[in-house]
Amino acid sequence: MAANYDAEPILKVEHMKQYFKMSSKFTVKAVDDVSFEIYPGETYGLVGESGSGKTTIGRGIIRLYDPTDGKITFNGIDISGKLNKEARAELRTKMQMIFQDPMASLNPRKKIGDIIGEGLDIHHNYASKEERKQHIDNILAKVGLAKEHYDRYPYQFSGGQRQRVGIARALIMNPDLIIADECISALDVSIQAQVVNLMKDIQEETGSAYLFIAHDLSMVKYISDRIGVLHLGRMLETGTTDEIFSNPIHPYTRSLLSAIPSPNPRTEKTRTAVAYDYATSGIDYDKGTLTHIDGTHYVHGTEAEIAKWQSENN
Question: Alpha-carbon distance 156 to 191, whole Å?
């Protein structure tokens, strides 16, 4: 199923802030004034270096953290403040998360069937034990695992299989949005490709939207419809995959893309990585705004900075 841009956004994040007070004098601004939208059936890639705020955004959206400020709307319901019964039910059933570490996110004392079926148990989404078992077996088959795996424990699986269990756990509630938090970073490259292809197949079948958080720009390019580039908790550039990769404007985006290794040894030999250091760049994130460039392409900066970057890019 292709992304439906004519519909209302399934998720709307407006001016989200996530601050962590470390002491009376020091506060970490992990996420600072971030806005973006995700449409039904779309995969929105969120990229940036370690510490840029990617995971914090994902955890804030699903309310593992309470956002400091801003508004988050999911399926037309405001889920950013204190959750009422309706908002909590919508959030817990229609939004799910696949975590980064496939071993740490699975209870080692529970069998795989019980881990996957926990959402069904909490929300009482079955009429009998037989129906519950059938539902879990169907999900296991969908992610490429066998019925026999139902009674096994997480330690009996490989990393790729454990991540498939994490995907199955997210799918069991038939969610509208899945937040994939670096769900392939702990896996071998060949297994990464299998998991990403599995996610694309499932999206085609179910129509779920993804917030795909990752370091690997090549994989993000492969799976994402649109991409947002984060740095120091700020959204610096966002647009379609083609806009970001063919016409990167912000110096940080250009720096990230220049660091992608080429599979062609001759091209790789002449590749030059563009350095970017915020401290010496002369750019002040507090002064810039997210400005519309063309199509769905937005860049964070002042008018003068954006004009300069565009001229340099041409």
Answer: 17
